[in-house]
Amino acid sequence: MSKRMIAIIAGISVVVIAAVVVLIIVLSGGNSYRLLKMYEFNGTGSVTREGKGEMTPYTNMVLESGDKIALDTGRLVIQADEDKYIHLDEHTEIKLVATGKSDNSKTEIELIKGGISNDIRNKLSAQSSYEINTPNSTMSVRGTVFYAYIYELDGIKYTRVCVFEGTVATRLVYKDGTVDTREVAVGKGKEIIIYEDGTTTDYLYDEPQDIDYDTLPENVLLDLKNMIDVDGKTLSITSPEITRILEGPYYVTFMYGDKEFGTQTVKKGEKAVVPSLRPAAAGGWDFDFGSAIEHDTKIEWKQ
After folding, report:
1. Are residues 229 and 252 located together in one domain of the fold?
2. What pLDDT, on a 0 to 100 scale, did the predictor assign at position 90?
3. Rounded to an integer, what distance in angstroms lies between the CA atom of residue 155 and that of residue 168?
4. Which residues does the chain have with pLDDT short of 50?
5. Contact 44, 54 (CB under 8 A)
């Protein structure tokens, strides 16, 4: 093949590649997301897409706005843009709507069941938004690390929101779909619980409470520890505090009324010992001393 022919073919190739690039740019304009993918997946789950049905997820799988993503077992992390990471608990299902470009991105997550940890690493632009909707609440942020979890007990639906960095703005969503005009801000180190019992939707407490870290799932605590140790984040809990929650030792406190009668330090999985002394002649400790200690525990004297 002559050098001239090679040059012509090369020139045509450059033009074709340029045209394809332009076409991709045009198609990626408007409402498409710059990056939406399965950042990490290891386990069992599914991605359900309109027109294609249910698909098996895999790491680096390109996602589309409107996809329903479910994690049954294992680990699943979604990346939106370069700086938003969504970690799903096991037995969690969400619907993800992601539109716009990096300077006007709009991310909306419908939490159908389970829980998600959200790591938004950069503050959103004035034209961008990030929202999570549950059956009884909606929450929006500018840039933060937080956890949202929905569950049901005795027919009452709950939404729990824990904030580890930044602030999350929450609003009640009533049964008829209307959204309360009042906004409750949940700051760093605080959590709120919203309930809906069929007739009433409201906050369980008058104001946000300190986070009960002992009741957070292990995977959430491990993700927080990784953000601290690897990403250098300063969150509402430290890495050593997380390690003690996960591995112990744990503190067992014996309470007589509102007074501390005594304490024990117990290794994870071991058992507390009945104190040799009794605070009163009548009564006993309200606890099963045959059960293993898995977190800090208060044991009360009952008469």
Report:
1. no
2. 98
3. 27
4. 6-33
5. no
Are 85 and 14 in the same domain?
no
Residue 242 is assigned to a structural domain of this protein:
no
Q: Which of 92, 174, 107 is nearest to 135 (CA)?
A: 174
For the chain, what is the domain count?
3
pLDDT for 4: 54
pLDDT at 25: 35
**Residues 106-135: pLDDT tens digits?**
999 999 999 999 999 999 988 999 999 999
Q: Is residue 61 part of a domain?
A: yes
Same domain, 222 and 169: yes
- What gap in Å lies between CA 90 and CA 112, rounded to an integer? 13
Greatest Cα pair distance in the chain: 107
Does 123 fall in a domain? yes
Range of the structural domain that residue 271 is part of: 248-302
User: Cβ distance 284 to 300 under 8 Å?
Assistant: no
Please report the DSSP string for 231-279 in residue order. T----SS-HHHHHHHHH--EEEEEEETTEEEEEEEE-TT------SS-S
The verdict on residue 243 lying in a domain is no
What is this structure's pTM?
A: 0.82
**91 to each of 94, 153, 195, 244, how far by Cα in Å?**
10, 17, 21, 26
User: CA torsion sign, 119 to 121 to 123 to 128?
Assistant: negative
How confident is the model at residue 83, as a pLDDT?
Answer: 92
Residue 23 CA to residue 36 CA, distance in Å, equals 19
Tokens, residue 300:
């009360």
End position of a domain, from candidates 198, 215, 237: 237
Burial label for 94, CB within 10 Å (0-12, 13-18, 19+), is: buried
The full length of the chain comes to: 303
Task: Tell me, yes or no, whether 182 and 275 share the same domain.
Answer: no
